Predict the structure.
Amino acid sequence: MEFRRYASLVKEKLNTSVGWRANFKESEGVSGRMNEQLDWKTCATESDELIAEDLPLRLNAGPQEHLGWLMQTIESSVIPRLLVTHLADQETNSTPSNSSTLKIRLTDPDGVAQLTRLLLEDDATKSAEFVRNLYTSGIPLDDVYLNLLAPAARMLGVMWEDDEVTFTQVTTSLWRIKQLVYDFSPLFQEFARADSSAPHAMLVPMPGSQHTLGLFMVSEFFRRGGWKVWGELAADHGEIITALKTQHFDLVGISISVEEQLPALSRFIELIRNESMNPNLGIMVGGPIFNQKPELTAQVGADIVGVDAEKALVEAEILLEQLRQKK
């Protein structure tokens, strides 16, 4: 059990970028002098001295004393060595020129077009491999979602409207994008805020809407931002109203697919406000129509519009603070 605990500690420290330098500054010996840019040989030599001078082991020590000595050695010597080497490698590989190159590759329209073509192919592994290669090369998942997957989904919609692809092709490709977001979710949520008093959001499509990918992506950003999300993408009117009557929500986000849904959305928002157990409920709307005509937001009775997943979270945080001040 002790070995497993220390193995877990090593893994945690190597995989967590936040706090590396703080941990080194707080530690004694080798790790406390990271800012002096000690090389590997210096670290190894001083760590060996720690073992010899600070952690003596009696010649007739028993099994339990041997185990305790080994655990102290791992904690004071092995882990600092691993951290020194790993941090040095990270700094070497994250040069400004490299980051700039990756940014250009991601925002290049040809990249979106290439992914769209791959999504339309019969072999689903090609599009998945394309996206994973970008991520493993150092591109943040935020950029992958906002500057690659979302534009590819929009391009598919345009191609369908222009009769360049069939409904089946678009549906299959959108499902593949959603699967990619689902597969990346554990990594995307790795550093999500954990707060016992986290705000609650209901994020749902207008009942009857067919396009849910954008809302699914918005839900990922909200969860990572520390919100608790109720997001039944196939919920009907009754299920939504029941949830609002029995649970406290700070925000309801609703997306629509087409402009013809606007009158029904306006009536639905009025019903939501009347039935919600929270009298200070915030309402957010989303969908291509609101991106093109943001003035429709107030017309349907909503407070804010979510242009994309990242901006939706920012607007929701601002609205939440405004609503709290009104109480």
